[in-house]
Amino acid sequence: MKNKQKTQPTKKKILTYYLILAACLLVIAAVVVGVVFGVKPSNEGNPSIDGGTTQDPTTPPDGEPDDKDPVQDTSSKYEFIAPVKSVVVSQAHVFWHNQTLNIYRLHEGMDFECAAGTEVLAAVDGTVKSVYTNDRLYGAMIEIEHADGVRTVYKFVEPLETLKVGAEVSRGDVIAKVAAATGTENADGDHLHFEVYKNDKIQNPDTYLKLISK
User: Is the pTM of this model over 0.85?
Assistant: First the structure.
């Protein structure tokens, strides 16, 4: 009789079994909840209503660049070239001594040393604003208007007879020839005097040509 009583589980053991079972159930329940609420569907190939796939809103459409900023136009409308083919800068845009007038002053342009008869080129696309053929100070000169309020001036030249006010010129077009030394820079010999203005304010031509700063 005593041996039979020993094989029967005590209340304490039964309670322990129940607690272990309850703990297992809680663990299983936590795992199920994590699986149901923790897994997110992949964005890759999301199905659409018509059976296709929807485009990821963070990805640009195929064939379109991600960068939407406008690309800077580097065509001849904006990019300057030297107004003569053989470039020899004899005088930069600096404070200098004008030997002809024997005065010190700012040299308002850039001088290109070249022989009389050298072809003068339009530095950039534009429209001819004025053509002076008998200027007392500069002999003859040409003014051309460009984009963004920029204007170029070519002095000590012989304009082509076909060049008229209002004519459209492209970068590299021949607009004149260098004249024999004359006027306010006569003592410097034959050369082209080239100036650049922005909104009617004189500029350093090298800002646009990048010849000296190279």
Answer: no
